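pasting for the record
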Amino acid sequence: MLKVKKAIIPAAGLGTRFLPATKTVPKEMLTIVDAPIILYVVEEAVQAGIEDIVLIAGRGKHAIEDFFDTSYELEDKLLKDGKENLLERVTRIREKANIISIRQKQALGLGHAVLCGLPIIGNEPFAVLLGDEITMGFHGEPNVTSQLVKSFEETGTSTISVMKVEDKDVSKYGIAEVEETSRGFFKVTSLMEKPKPSETKSRWALPGRYVFDNSIMDILQSAKPTLNGEIQLTDSMKVLCQSKGLNAMTFTAERYDAGDKLGYLQANIELALQNPALGSELKNYILQLAQRLK
C-alpha cells in the first residue's frame, strides 16, 4: 500500500488584496490571530503524516522560506515579543518535517506550480494544499488532508475534497462534476475551471485540498496553457479522471479562504474564539455588537 509522505504547498501571488501593491509581503505570511496563514497550512500537512513539504515560492516569497529556517534573529525576536507559543509551533514543525523550497520562476498557473515540485516528489504520491486556504477541525475530527490521505491509502485512487457552493460562487472555483457512490463520497466524471453557473449543473467546488498518485505529474508535463494563459491543474485532473480515475469527498472541518478579504476576517474571528486567552472576551464583544446592530 502506497503511503502519502510528501506534500506540495503552492504559494504564488503577493498579498495585494490586503496591502499596497508596492509591498512585497506574501499573503501567506499575514497573521491569523497569532500565527501566519502558512503555519496553519503546514501544521495541517504534518498532522496528516506528511514528512516532506515542498513550498513552491514565487517572486517576493523569501519571508516564507526564512520563517521556517533555523534563525537566531527570528527566534530571539519571537522570545522578546512574548511569542513563545509561536516559536514552539515552528520548532515542532522543524522537528517533524523537512521544509523544502522551490522557486517558481514564472507564474504560469497552479498546474505549473505543482509540476515544479516534481524533483522532490519523484515517483511518489503526494498531497497538495493551497497556501492561502485554512481548514480546521474544531470537534476532534481528522483534518481534511488526513481524510484524503486515508482515502487514497485505502483505495489507491487520487482523491480530492469538494464543497457545495451557491450559484453566485460557481465562477470563483474549479468545479467537479460527480456521481455519488456513497454518502459524501463521489466518482469524478469531469472538471471545469471557473465556469459560468449556466455551463454546469454541478455545484461541487474545489476548496484547495488534493491527494494524487504520481500519474498527475506525467499529465502535467504535457499540459498546455488554457484559461488566462496558465497551466490549469483542473485540466490535468480532468484527464486523470478519464484515465486512472479520480475520487472526491466532502469534509466536516471549517474552511476559510484567507486570500479573500471576508474569508480572512472570518478566519481571525473563528480562530480567536477558540483561543483560550481571547475567546471569552471576544464572544462577549460580538454579543454586544450584535445587539447594537439590530
